[in-house]
# Entry
Amino acid sequence: MSRTSFSCPFCCSDVPLQASVCSHCTRDLVLFKPLALQLNDLSDQVEQLKTVVQEQQTALTELKSHDIGALALAFSEQQPMASVSSSTPADSSARKSGLTLVAMALLTMALVGLSHWVLLFVYDAPPLALRLLTITLPALTGYVCARKSGMGVLAQLLAAFTTGIASVCLMLWITATIDAVPLWPTNARDWKETFEYVAAISLAFFTGYLFHRLNVHWTQKQQIRISLSVLLERDEKGQFKIAEITRQVQSLVTAFAPVVSAGTALYSGLKVFVVN
# Structure
């Protein structure tokens, strides 16, 4: 910018650029003229910088507002898709668990039916062998089912009873087809034996689930033994560790549940041989 005047350092009035003396205060400006010119130039540069900074701030504000609006629009468009994608894995996992449960129940029924046909009609094995096999096979498939499906206790219990009923119905159908006898039992003794088979297979299948729970429980926590020192132990506040004792009792209950179920299944399956 070309300048035609400058400010007098004494009275701040405008003085022509060629003047050496201020026309207002009559002061000599020879020594102060170069300094005054430099100050005026610096002042002009500062004003220019202020203008540039203000323009940059305005542009940055507009850019930020535009980016925030674009991001909000993109988020609103992607949110429904995200909700669908987040719910899809859960639905897929539940469907997979249900299919695994059904598949293991069908596999148990097929194995029991095959064992019934092979042992009794192909090799004419003693009934005790069939009884033992109808207990061990459902226990193994029940354990695998609980491990692979991850279903809860109610689903496993329902699958166990359904498997037991379906397996016995298949055994009755095989016997009726080969021996040409009625499908359903005709006397109280046969009905009792049928119910014993149902109970043995169902309890064995559910016992596999209980053993799986016991395995998971003991894997996560170390086996806890209740002793006198634990009963008398106190925490930092001086209180008895009742919660610890309760957890230990719960561990024992969890450990004994599969044993009780397995014992009941064995008793149901081998009752006729034990009584006799």
User: Anything to note?
Assistant: Residues 175 and 263 are 28 Å apart (CA to CA). The chain has two domains: 5-79, 96-275. Confidence is low (pLDDT under 50) at residues 81-87. The first helix runs from residue 33 to 122.
